[in-house]
């Protein structure tokens, strides 16, 4: 995972080309959602040990935001999806 | 068994066969007043201070591996209190004061060495930011000196003054900062806690938190069976989200890995702890002669205690840029520690919404220096149900309420604090 | 002479003499020698001193695991301490020095520690040096520090070059012994892209010291022939002197190649070391096995080494390690070495075999002491005898070297670097490689095979599997017949009872059996505790030699099996790697990229002094005439801008082009203030928040056409803002039609500010720039005279009539020159970011000095930019939290020292007058400060608790770290033209 990432647009690229934002599971709530929902979105994380989804940004490549599904204990990568496709309910 | 030069001599004469275990290996009792989950530095110091300072005797520390197997044994051993914000300075200064008295208190030489911590500034803006920090420290009675380039050249002639990408402009020195022998801190607290009757139970993994019908915590299921308690205290930084989940709590934390490195041993060349302001590199030299250093985290979430080569390389790039003479020395070993990276870069010592459950978490990459104060303040909280005054800002609900303690000013993205 | 060269034996070139020096004395070796073999050939067995007790030590291995023979190679800025003599390739002019000894290697005062050793047991330092408290740092610790460490570093800048490279292959083979060669050959013949990496300067691994015949030729000849075939294959890359040190995620291996470590003066045309990142489809670990020392009393005297090392020195280097060599073994290896020694005419003192019986053959006439052991040794700088013991009867046997064999441990380091632990095998009495999946497998003795024929076969088999897995056909590879194999079996012997002297486990760190016993006794019996308490395995060899012995000893002491004790954690690096190789070219001025503006040349020729701003070099100020201090220049520039005009390079600001039919809606969502109705041809100042409600960045965005905007960001946050916009567009609002491209580098942008700026600019611009047709905040394309299309924005950071003109980067310098020329009569000057800072402080404009990531819009007086009518924008929802709206927040104010000559500095703290300094008494801090030539004194912006209510109050500016303290008056944060009249002229 963290040596090489297979970008869906650019292919297998070294980790240095990417920056990482964090957990890709929380979804931005509706503007009128409760304070609890907003607090949870901005601050609270499941942070499981194991399979996670994480935002990676191909900064030095296609500049697309990607959702990397991977295991944070073994560093195995299961899927890399363009974040827009993911946001539009694409691969999950 | 009190340790001293005399005791060493006495035992030497009898073939060193009389030394006793530094701590017992008890079987768990069915019930404790306080159970602390996590036999790392923070858990052990919490137990020690609970027993010694707060009069609680019936305490157990449960450790899934061996004591000190977490971050207390895999850090870069730096102690300091050169913080910026009101929520942090008093806490870390309290910690540094406890470090200063630690050997006498524990009768254990954790080799606290106040070698001075120097943070280097490489632009006028950074120098002013360090001035702000230094003034904040001084306001609280913490030592801080702003040195100029000439002062630094005398003190640290080996830094890159002539061919630096980011020229060295100034340095903020905290003379009382320094290093400590990390493993010995865990052992010293363990021995101290044990001598006050604390049961340290190694290889005892907590698998569930038991709660009664009112939601109150009553004990833990472990690999050694159920153990009851009046109060349960979590000190499992790196894995806090996993332990808190057992009580259905979600935390403002992501887990990340930070690599650190040690070089082959060399004769003393670097006296102080040096922090590079042109990047994140920091370095000191251990009493054994190894250069101990690190820089950035790997930035992706990881529970694996290992990192990747990209960060190894960037760390060395920064190191050689700051100290060109490192180039021909060799790096012996790298390791990784998994850390609770909190949403504002500051820790949490607080009660939780769950009755009888107490939380010590979110130490980011700064937990080692906090070990004494973390234990003391957590013990205070557990014993008295109210925060110690130096840890008042480190609340769990500070995010909800808008009182983040954000030293780096980076906002709610854990991996950039 | 005791150890000596045997004429015309081995693979060294006896015809090519190499001169080198050790501790000032000149010696001769041969090409193909290591430093250690050459020193041994010169009867220099003593090569180092141990870490703690400063005991005299000679090499115990002939390879990378060496704990003892560490020397400092090179001098001055090329000094390399702790170099293992056993792998250091000998070269002409090599200068080596011993280390960790004073005054000399022979007479080292530090060896007195040995006499005190009963008091210096494991962890003794944790129990003492505590009284008096002040003595630790002043007395005890400095002594310990000086005594510790190994070699001396010079810490001078490295004169040599390093570089990095990627390599890609289908199969990486680590190690070039019998299994590595066969693996490479099998895969190579099948057409796989193969990399064969070998840490040694000569390929062949154990074959180089092997006496068995392979396929009818000598083992070294077999290696040479195989290598020749491999070298002829275009799909095979052979990498000698290349150590694979780490296994990282995704089958990426880190390796370091010594390119010019075997020359006295490296050529400047090549790097001295090269870091490789090898992305391998699959890998085979053919790293061999390590012979274990035996743990017996006095097992560390110079002259005692492993049987394998003894044999390697003999067969590969043609060096007999002694004239009369004893052998202490628990298996066939000792006999094999004895046979080789005997065949070369070296006298064998005796073979001490721990076993009662074996089928091994001793050389003719050599005495074998079965069920024997060694309980002590004698000799000072070199072994002179061994005290053997058999059934309780002692016998002193004279010898000048001892070859020991305690069995074999596969070298599984790399495979255990990613979490998998090696697996104990009762049968092999060793830890074997874990199963880490099909992509990375061990072969040969690394996989627990012992004989040459097994290793050859296993290398082929493992490569065969790799070839099949990638769907290639396997060519036929014959595993050659081997003649003269030995019986590799051994009987475990972890501790030789009856030791009458220290029995060392970790040689370098002087950890002996009693230390492990003490650790166990004191509760440190867990293998990690034992390591950390005793330092066993923490030396520069990282326990390669001693760890398995330590584990087995702990197991014995605890009464459990080695499997239950387990190993400590294997981590990179397999062997130590230089900082230089890992850093590569990124050092000194090249440590980070340098960014220069398209107007850099313009600034330079106008006399700019540059300063680093992130990766940028920005023009700070422009010295003119007799100006001696930066202040003189800055004051002049500031006054000139306010009186006439000035031109400033603002190209470093982030510039983002935004397109799309939903661009307006998008901007409206990422800015806190309204952007939906920004008219075409207009610019607007915008504030961006983070989702937590704090200010993220500010800048202007201009609408150039219906669906085309251009955004400017601060220099520092250009990349972050771009990433932020991309993130928001792709994840929050994926359905919006909006696209971005960063054009920060494509435009040269310059601010022309000052009352005469319009006059000057009009000379160059075709379009009418009158206030009526190009009013404040106008933003559109204009034609420059001569035909160039430019973008012009009437925006002002200085508070004066001002424009920002953007032209394609390549035209920047010419346009800036033209402006300077056009403005000459109007008194134009170039001004830098220092003057820009003064101008903006005078106007109370914020930068990231104020917006430090902890400030809200309201904190800096921009509360009105938080739209209340928009249902949503990033940061809106959490901006109303209690703590973000509390009355005692720090708010931005202006500050003026009461005494005119007091210099205000950013970073000073603020206190109430007459109050003792304390954290709780703190009132805030000075965020920005400058000398205002306009006002005639220092002024500043400050963040002050409830600041806006406190205008007129006197407050103490407390700058303890710069020893200054004075009163200042709190004022509104605008010092010039508060009504903004100048903007609209």
Automatic annotation (TrEMBL), chain A:
Q: Does the keyword NAD apply?
A: no
* E.C. numbers: 1.5.3.1
**Name of the protein in its database record:** Sarcosine oxidase subunit delta
Which Gene3D superfamilies does the annotation name?
Folate-binding superfamily
Q: InterPro entries per the record? A: SoxD (IPR006279), SoxD_sf (IPR038561)
Q: Which GO MF terms does the UniProt record name? A: sarcosine oxidase activity
The record lists the organism as Neorhizobium huautlense
Query: What keywords sit in the KW lines?
Result: Oxidoreductase
Q: Identify which top EC class this enzyme belongs to.
A: oxidoreductase
Superkingdom: Bacteria
Read off the lineage from the record: Bacteria, Pseudomonadati, Pseudomonadota, Alphaproteobacteria, Hyphomicrobiales
UniProtKB/TrEMBL annotation, chain B:
Query: What InterPro entries does the database record attribute to this sequence?
Result: FAD-dep_OxRdtase (IPR006076), FAD/NAD-bd_sf (IPR036188), Rhodanese-like_dom (IPR001763), SoxB (IPR006278)
Tree of life domain: Bacteria
Taking every annotated instance into account, which residue ranges of this chain make up the domain Rhodanese? Answer: 34-78
Names of required cofactors: FMN; FAD
User: Where does this protein reside within or beyond the cell?
Assistant: Cytoplasm
Protein name in UniProt: Sarcosine oxidase subunit beta
Q: Name one Pfam family in it.
A: DAO
Enzyme Commission number(s) of this protein: 1.5.3.24
Annotated NCBIfam families: soxB
Q: Which UniProt keywords apply?
A: Cytoplasm, FAD, Flavoprotein, FMN, Nucleotide-binding, Oxidoreductase
* A GO molecular function held by the record: sarcosine oxidase activity
Q: Which reaction does it catalyse?
A: sarcosine + O2 + H2O = formaldehyde + glycine + H2O2; sarcosine + (6S)-5,6,7,8-tetrahydrofolate + O2 = (6R)-5,10-methylene-5,6,7,8-tetrahydrofolate + glycine + H2O2
* Assigned protein family: Belongs to the SoxB family.
* Predominant location: cytoplasm
UniProtKB/TrEMBL annotation, chain C:
This protein's name: Sarcosine oxidase subunit alpha
Q: Report the residue ranges that make up the Aminomethyltransferase C-terminal domain in this protein.
A: 891-977
Check the record and name the Pfam families matching this protein.
FAD_oxidored, Fer2_4, GCV_T, GCV_T_C, SO_alpha_A3
This protein's species is Neorhizobium huautlense
Q: Does the keyword Oxidoreductase apply?
A: yes
| Domain GCVT N-terminal, chain residue ranges per copy | 599-870
Into which family does the record put it?
Answer: Belongs to the GcvT family.
Note the InterPro entries from the entry. Answer: 2Fe-2S-bd_N, FAD/NAD-bd_sf, GcvT/YgfZ/DmdA, GcvT/YgfZ_C, GcvT_C, GCVT_N, Sarcosine_oxidase_asu, SoxA_A3
Q: Name one GO molecular function term.
A: sarcosine oxidase activity
Keywords attached to this Swiss-Prot or TrEMBL record, sorted alphabetically, are: Oxidoreductase
Domain named SoxA A3: residues? 502-584
Its Enzyme Commission number(s) read 1.5.3.1
């Amino acid at each position: 995972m963290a040596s090489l990432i297979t970008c869906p647009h650019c292919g297998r690229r070294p980790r240095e080309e990417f920056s990482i934002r964090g957990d890709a599971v929380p979804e931005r709530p509706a503007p009128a959602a409760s304070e609890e929902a907003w607090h949870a979105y901005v601050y609270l994380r499941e942070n499981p040990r194991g399979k996670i989804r994480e935002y990676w940004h191909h900064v030095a490549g296609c500049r697309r935001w990607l959702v990397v599904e991977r295991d944070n204990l073994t560093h195995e990568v299961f899927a890399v999806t363009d974040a827009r496709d993911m946001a539009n309910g694409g691969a999950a | 068994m009190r340790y001293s030069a005399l005791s060493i001599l006495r035992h030497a004469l009898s073939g060193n066969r009389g030394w006793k275990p530094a701590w017992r290996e008890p079987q768990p009792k069915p019930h404790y007043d306080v159970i602390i989950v996590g036999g790392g530095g923070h858990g052990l110091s919490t137990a020690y201070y609970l027993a010694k300072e707060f009069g609680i005797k019936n305490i157990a520390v449960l450790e899934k591996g061996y004591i000190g197997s977490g971050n207390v044994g895999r850090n870069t051993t730096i102690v300091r209190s050169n913080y910026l914000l009101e929520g942090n300075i008093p806490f870390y200064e309290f910690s540094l004061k406890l470090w200063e008295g630690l050997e006498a208190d524990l009768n254990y030489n954790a080799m606290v060495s106040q070698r001075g911590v120097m943070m280097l500034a490489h632009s006028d803006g950074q120098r002013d930011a360090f001035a702000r920090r230094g003034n904040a420290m001084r306001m609280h009675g913490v030592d801080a000196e702003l040195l100029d380039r000439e002062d630094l050249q005398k003190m640290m002639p080996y830094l890159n003054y002539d061919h630096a990408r980011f020229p060295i402009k100034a340095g903020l020195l905290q003379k009382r900062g320094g290093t400590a022998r990390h493993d010995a801190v865990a052992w010293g607290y363990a021995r101290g806690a044990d001598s006050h009757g604390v049961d340290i139970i190694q290889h005892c993994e907590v698998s569930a938190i038991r709660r009664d019908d009112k939601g109150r915590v009553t004990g833990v299921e472990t690999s050694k069976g159920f153990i009851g308690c009046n109060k349960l205290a979590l000190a499992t930084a790196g894995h806090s989200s996993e332990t808190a989940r057992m009580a259905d709590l979600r935390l403002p934390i992501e887990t990340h890995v930070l690599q650190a490195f040690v070089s082959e041993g060399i004769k003393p060349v670097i006296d102080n702890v040096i922090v590079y302001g042109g990047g994140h590199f920091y370095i000191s030299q251990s009493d054994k002669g190894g250069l101990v250093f690190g820089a950035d985290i790997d930035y992706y979430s990881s529970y694996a205690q290992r990192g990747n080569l990209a960060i190894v390389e960037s760390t060395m790039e920064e190191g050689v840029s700051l100290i060109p003479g490192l180039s021909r020395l060799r790096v012996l070993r790298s390791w990784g520690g998994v850390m609770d990276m909190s949403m504002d870069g500051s820790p949490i010592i607080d009660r939780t919404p769950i009755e009888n459950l107490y939380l010590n978490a979110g130490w980011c990459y700064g937990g080692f220096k906090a070990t004494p104060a973390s234990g003391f303040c957590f013990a205070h909280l557990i014993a008295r149900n109210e925060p110690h005054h130096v840890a008042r800002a480190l609340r769990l609900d500070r995010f909800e309420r808008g009182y983040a303690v954000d030293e780096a000013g980076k906002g709610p993205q854990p991996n950039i604090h | 002479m005791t150890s000596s060269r045997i004429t015309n034996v081995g693979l060294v070139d006896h015809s090519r003499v190499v001169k080198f020096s050790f501790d000032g004395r000149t010696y001769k070796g041969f090409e193909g020698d290591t430093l250690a073999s050459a020193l041994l050939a010169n009867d220099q067995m003593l090569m180092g001193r141990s870490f703690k007790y400063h005991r005299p030590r000679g090499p115990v291995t002939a390879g990378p695991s060496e704990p003892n023979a560490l020397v400092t190679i090179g001098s001055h800025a090329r000094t390399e301490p702790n170099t293992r003599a056993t792998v250091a390739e000998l070269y002409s002019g090599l200068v080596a020095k011993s280390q960790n000894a004073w005054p000399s290697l022979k007479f080292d005062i530090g060896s007195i520690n040995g006499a005190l050793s009963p008091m210096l047991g494991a962890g003794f330092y944790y129990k003492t040096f505590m009284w008096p408290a002040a003595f630790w740092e002043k007395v005890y610790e400095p002594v310990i520090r000086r005594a510790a460490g190994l070699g001396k570093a010079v810490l001078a800048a490295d004169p040599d070059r390093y570089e990095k490279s990627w390599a890609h292959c289908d199969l990486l083979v680590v190690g070039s012994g019998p299994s590595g060669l066969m693996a490479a050959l099998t895969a190579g013949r099948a057409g796989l892209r193969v990399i064969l990496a070998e840490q040694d300067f000569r390929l062949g691994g154990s074959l180089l010291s092997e006496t068995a015949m392979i396929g009818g030729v000598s083992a070294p000849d077999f290696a040479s022939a195989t290598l020749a075939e491999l070298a002829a294959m275009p799909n095979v890359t052979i990498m000698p002197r290349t150590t694979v040190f780490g296994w990282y995620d995704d089958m990426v291996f880190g390796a370091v190649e010594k390119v010019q470590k075997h020359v006295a003066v490296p050529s400047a045309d090549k790097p001295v070391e090269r870091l490789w990142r090898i992305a391998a489809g699959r890998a085979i670990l053919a790293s061999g096995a390590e012979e274990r020392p035996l743990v017996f009393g006095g097992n560390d005297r110079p002259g005692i080494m492993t049987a394998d090392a003894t044999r390697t020195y003999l067969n590969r280097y043609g060096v007999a390690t002694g004239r009369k060599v004893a052998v202490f073994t628990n298996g066939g290896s000792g006999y094999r070495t004895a046979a080789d020694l005997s065949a070369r005419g070296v006298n064998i003192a005796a073979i001490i075999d721990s076993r009662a019986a074996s089928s091994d053959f001793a050389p003719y006439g050599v005495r074998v002491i079965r069920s024997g052991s060694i309980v002590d040794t004698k000799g000072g700088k070199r072994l002179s005898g061994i005290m053997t013991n058999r059934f309780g009867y002692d016998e002193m046997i004279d010898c000048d070297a001892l070859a020991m064999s305690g069995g074999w441990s596969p070298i599984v380091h790399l495979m255990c670097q990613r979490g998998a632990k090696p697996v104990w095998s009762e049968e092999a009495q060793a830890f074997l490689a874990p199963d880490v999946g099909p992509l990375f497998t061990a072969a040969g003795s690394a996989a627990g095979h012992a004989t040459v024929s097994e290793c050859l076969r296993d290398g082929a088999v493992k490569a065969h599997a790799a070839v099949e897995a990638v769907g290639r056909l396997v060519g036929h590879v014959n595993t050659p017949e081997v003649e003269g194999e030995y019986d590799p079996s051994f009987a475990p012997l972890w501790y030789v009872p009856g030791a009458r002297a220290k029995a060392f486990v970790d040689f370098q760190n002087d950890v002996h059996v009693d230390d492990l016993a003490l650790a166990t006794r004191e509760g440190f019996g867990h293998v990690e505790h034992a390591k950390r308490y005793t330092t066993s395995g923490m030396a520069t060899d990282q326990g390669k030699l001693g760890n398995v012995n330590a584990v087995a000893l702990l197991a014995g002491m605890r009464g459990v099996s080695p499997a239950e004790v387990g190993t400590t954690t294997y981590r990179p690096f397999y062997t130590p790697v230089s900082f230089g190789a890992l850093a590569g070219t990124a050092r000194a001025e090249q440590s980070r990229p340098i960014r220069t503006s398209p107007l850099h040349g313009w600034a330079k020729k106008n006399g700019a002094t540059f300063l680093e701003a992130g990766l940028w070099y920005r023009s700070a100020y422009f010295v003119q005439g007799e100006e001696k201090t930066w202040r003189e220049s800055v004051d002049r520039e500031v006054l000139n801008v306010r009186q006439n005009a000035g031109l400033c390079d603002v190209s470093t600001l982030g510039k983002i082009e935004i397109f799309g039919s939903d661009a307006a809606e998008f901007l409206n969502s990422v800015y806190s203030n309204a952007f939906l109705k920004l008219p075409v041809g207009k610019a607007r100042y915008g504030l961006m928040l983070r989702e937590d409600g704090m200010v993220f960045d500010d800048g202007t965005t201009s609408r150039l056409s219906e669906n085309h905007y251009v955004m400017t960001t601060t220099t520092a946050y250009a990349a972050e803002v771009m990433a932020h916009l991309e993130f928001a567009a792709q994840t929050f609002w994926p359905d919006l039609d909006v696209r971005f491209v960063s054009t920060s580098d494509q435009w040269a942008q310059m601010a022309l500010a000052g009352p005469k700026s319009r006059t000057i600019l009009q000379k160059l611009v075709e379009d009418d720039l009158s206030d009526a047709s190009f009013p404040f905040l106008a933003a559109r394309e204009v034609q420059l005279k001569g035909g160039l299309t430019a973008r012009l924005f009437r925006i002002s950071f200085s508070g004066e009539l001002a424009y920002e003109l953007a032209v394609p980067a390549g035209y920047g310098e010419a346009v800036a020159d033209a402006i300077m020329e056009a403005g000459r009569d109007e008194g134009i000057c170039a001004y830098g970011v220092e003057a820009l800072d003064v101008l903006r402080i005078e106007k109370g404009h914020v930068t990231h000095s104020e917006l430090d990531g902890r400030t809200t819009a309201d904190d800096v007086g921009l509360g009105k930019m938080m739209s209340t009518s928009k249902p949503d924008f990033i940061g809106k929802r959490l901006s109303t939290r209690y703590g973000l709206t509390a009355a005692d927040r720090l708010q931005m104010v202006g500050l003026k020292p009461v005494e005119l000559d007091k210099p205000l500095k950013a970073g000073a703290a603020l206190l109430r007058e007459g109050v003792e300094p304390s954290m709780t008494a703190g009132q805030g801090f000075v965020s920005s400060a400058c000398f205002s030539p306009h006002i005639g004194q220092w002024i500043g912006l400050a963040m002050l608790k409830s600041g806006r209510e406190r205008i007129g109050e006197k407050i103490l500016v407390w700058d303890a770290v710069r020893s200054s303290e004075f009163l200042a008056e709190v004022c509104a944060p605008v010092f010039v033209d508060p009504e903004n009249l100048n903007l609209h002229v």
